[in-house]
From TrEMBL:
Coiled-coil annotated spans: none
Keywords for the protein's UniProt record, in alphabetical order: FAD, Flavoprotein, Methyltransferase, NADP, Nucleotide biosynthesis, Transferase
Organism for this UniProt entry: Palleronia marisminoris
Positions of dUMP binding: Q109, W110, I111, R112, E120, Y121, S122, A123, R124, R196, R223
Family annotation (HAMAP family): ThyX
InterPro entries: Thymidylate_synthase_ThyX, Thymidylate_synthase_ThyX_sf
Protein name as it appears in the record: Flavin-dependent thymidylate synthase
Name of the gene: thyX
Catalysed conversion reaction: dUMP + (6R)-5,10-methylene-5,6,7,8-tetrahydrofolate + NADPH + H(+) = dTMP + (6S)-5,6,7,8-tetrahydrofolate + NADP(+)
Annotated GO biological process: dTMP biosynthetic process; dTTP biosynthetic process; methylation
Pathway, per record: Pyrimidine metabolism; dTTP biosynthesis
Length: 301
């Protein structure tokens, strides 16, 4: 269970409170505030706070004193222009703060996105819960034979059960030892900051993660991609659903130009021009490596 009844009561109390404000608010994300979105077996994503909306992006780009008299279509056109031409600063005027509960190995991938403010649950100060990520059977896969950092076919039958049993047993055994090292009845007990080193990478941690919209889009472009590891991709998908409601115009442009768009090298563009001119171009005559050629053909079909 991602959250306890006591935690849910605290969330419900937060969501029941409203405060008058003069700042711009976005109804789409207001509906998400504080709500715990379940992810994986014990994880959550919660929107805690935000600043700005689609209008804030436009306002920053025009450096205006207010929302102005332009129509929504004008605003959408400007946002799409900014996205299309890689003007990042106006998108940095919007920020979001998220509460995320996630396995440690996912957190170590996530923290590679360094353009954010992060405050993580301290296992030096507090005791971690007995909660571990155990993959669902359909996500228990063998190593890919083609991709050194990817998955292959799904494990089945006795082999799948053997792996699941080992994951559960090892996780619980490590936590038993963790508790035993912390115990003070009849012994001094090991310091929390040392006892934690015995815990596996699938134990859950929590953090507050605050970033601006430009860098959040970069995170989503990489982590919501079908090639991203499943365990971080489901978090990215949950965040994307919140962002889509928060800044619908900006998110639409992001989907079109970043998620659904493609980037071609100078050599690949020249190949396209030659093809459009009627020339039959092959990998050998393209000037591209085999991998570059395959990637370019994957884009242009």
């Amino acid at each position: 269970m991602p959250i306890t009844p006591e935690q849910q009561a605290e969330i419900d109390a937060q969501r029941a409170e409203t405060t008058p404000t003069r700042r711009a608010t976005a109804p789409g994300i207001e509906a998400h505030l504080y709500e715990a979105k379940p992810v994986l077996d014990h994880g959550i994503v919660r929107a805690i706070d935000y600043m700005g909306d689609d209008a804030a992006i436009v306002q920053a780009a025009r450096v205006s004193y207010g929302r102005g008299t332009r129509t929504v279509s004008n605003d959408e056109g400007l946002i799409r222009y900014l996205m299309r031409h890689w003007h990042s600063t106006p998108f940095e005027m919007c920020e979001i703060k998220l509460h995320v509960k996630l396995p440690v190995f996912v957190a170590r991938q996530w923290i590679r996105h360094r353009t954010a403010n992060v405050n993580e649950y301290s296992a030096r100060y507090s005791v971690l819960d007995r909660e571990f990520y155990i993959p669902a059977p359909e996500h228990l896969a063998a190593q890919s034979r083609q991709n050194n950092q990817g998955r292959g076919t799904v494990l089945e039958g006795e082999e799948a059960q053997r792996v699941l049993d080992m994951l559960r047993e090892d996780s619980n055994r490590a936590y038993d030892h963790y508790e035993d090292m912390l115990r003070t009845d009849g012994q001094q007990g090991l310091a929390r900051e040392l006892a934690r080193m015995n815990l596996p990478a699938n134990v859950y941690t929590q953090w507050y993660w605050k970033t601006d919209l430009h860098n959040l889009f970069h995170f989503l472009r990489l982590r919501a991609d079908p090639h991203a590891q499943y365990e971080i991709r489901v978090y990215a998908d949950a965040i994307a659903a919140i962002v889509r409601d928060w800044v619908p115009l900006a998110y639409g442009a992001f989907e079109d130009y970043r998620m659904g768009g493609a980037h071609l090298s100078r050599g690949a563009v020249e190949v396209v021009r030659r093809m459009l001119a009627g020339e039959e171009v092959t990998q050998e005559t393209s000037g591209l490596s085999k991998r570059e050629w395959a990637e370019a053909m994957g884009v242009i079909g």
